[in-house]
Each structure stands twice: as structure tokens, then as C-alpha cells.
Specification:
The chain has 66 residues and is of the alpha+beta class. The chain contains 2 helices and 5 strands; from the N terminus they run E-H-E-E-E-H-E.
Amino acid sequence: MKIILGFSTTNAFYSKMIRWGTNANVSHVYFKLFDQTLGAEMVLHADMPGVIFRLFDEFKIKNFTT
């Protein structure tokens, strides 16, 4: 299984504070992998409710990835 480490940010207040505090262009790290059962790219990342496992296409809607 190939796992890709990626970086992202959002327009949310906490993302802006992280970018400001670290003087970086990104605020979060995520893991992307291909789920053979679903036949889709998935993302594992931390968000306000906790650790979330979701489709990468859904993740890209609110997250700017690098």
C-alpha cells in the first residue's frame, strides 16, 4: 500500500492562526492512500471533531492541498 504525506490549509480561523504562528503557507498534514475496496483515494487527517477518514475528493472541497 502506497501512503502519501501531504500538506494543506483552509480558510478557517484556526488554520489562519497556525499559518500566522508558524509563518508557513500550510497548517495541516494529511495521509492519502488508495482504498482498493472502494476504488478511491482516501485521506486520513485531524479536524475539529477528531481524526477523520474520508474521500480525497470531499477533502479537496474545503482544503487547499500542496
